[in-house]
TrEMBL record:
InterPro entries: Class_I_gatase-like, ThuA-like. The keyword Lipoprotein does not apply. Residues 36-258 form the ThuA-like domain. The keyword Signal applies. Residues 1-27 form the signal peptide. This is ThuA-like domain-containing protein. Keywords: Signal. It comes from the Bacteria.
């Protein structure tokens, strides 16, 4: 029924509704398994990797038969427009990007069973919107970059192979990243899919003189959860443009987006 409603809405709406939404390469194909909106508006720090991230997700859509639209226009957050999508991907958004009406529309979208996939700085977004903080799971605090290098190679421990986001990954995955520290540890309310091993790099962040502490022996870096009627996937990985050509990261993103869209099994129940 939900897909039928979306079909009726799409038929009734003009293609250009809610501002400049550019269709991805998958839009030209005749059959889409699901539809994704990539949202990358920034009101604070802007990552120069955003174009590479958008292009990578569009290429994933073309290869795996899902439609990808991309926008930085917050006017896309209306009930009618959001109903066109199975998942909204927040790609390195920062700061306060939605007004009150747009926030309310996104809350209704999630409560109606919509999907959210957050990538990297999506956790550095909307600090004054408590509902969003619960959705993303944890807010960004800092990352290495004062007493320790900003970008470091570390080992990611993949926890469980029963999800689309983790199945393609090695159990221990060495990669370079800007490793985020979070204001709170979300592991009591989310299912952690991957954590970064602080023994393999220097996690001290820049927010305190001499370096703020990391997050300890269990440092979540990717997770998922059911939230307020919807499906959530988040990963803090994805800072540099070159990372979006890494097949392992792309497989992680693809699996997480598919889970949030509801087309891959969502084994993301909260911990006991």
């Amino acid at each position: 029924m939900k897909r039928l409603v979306r079909f009726v809405v799409m038929a009734a709406l003009a293609v250009g509704l809610a501002g400049p939404v550019s269709p991805g390469a998958a839009a030209a194909s005749g059959h889409h398994r699901f539809t994704a909106l990539v949202f990358s508006k920034t009101a604070a720090f802007r990552h120069d990797s955003i174009p590479a991230g958008v292009a990578a997700i569009q290429q994933l859509g073309a290869r795996h038969h899902f439609r990808v639209d991309a926008t930085e226009d917050a006017a896309a957050f209306t009930d009618a427009n959001l109903a066109r999508y199975d998942v909204v991907v927040w790609l390195s958004t920062t700061g306060d990007v939605l007004n009150d009406a747009q926030q309310a529309a996104f809350e209704r979208y999630i409560r109606a069973g919509g999907g959210y996939a957050g990538i990297h700085a999506a956790s550095d977004t909307e600090y004054d919107w408590a509902w969003y903080g619960g959705l993303v799971g944890a807010y960004f605090r800092d990352h290495p970059g004062s007493v320790s290098p900003q970008f470091q190679v570390a080992t990611v421990k993949v926890l469980g192979r029963d999800t689309a986001a983790t199945r393609p990954l090695p159990r221990r995955w060495e990669r370079e990243e800007e490793w985020y520290n979070f204001r709170t540890n979300p592991r009591d309310t989310v299912r952690v899919l991957a954590e970064v091993d602080e023994r393999t790099y220097d996690p001290r962040g820049y927010s305190l003189p001499g370096g703020s502490p990391g997050m300890g022996p269990h440092h979540p870096i990717s997770w998922c959860q059911p939230y307020d009627g919807g499906r959530v996937f988040y990963t803090a990985m994805g800072h540099k443009a070159e990372y979006y050509s890494d097949p392992l990261l792309l497989s992680h993103l693809l699996g997480g987006i598919r889970m949030a869209a509801g087309v891959a099994p969502f084994h993301c129940g909260r911990p006991d």
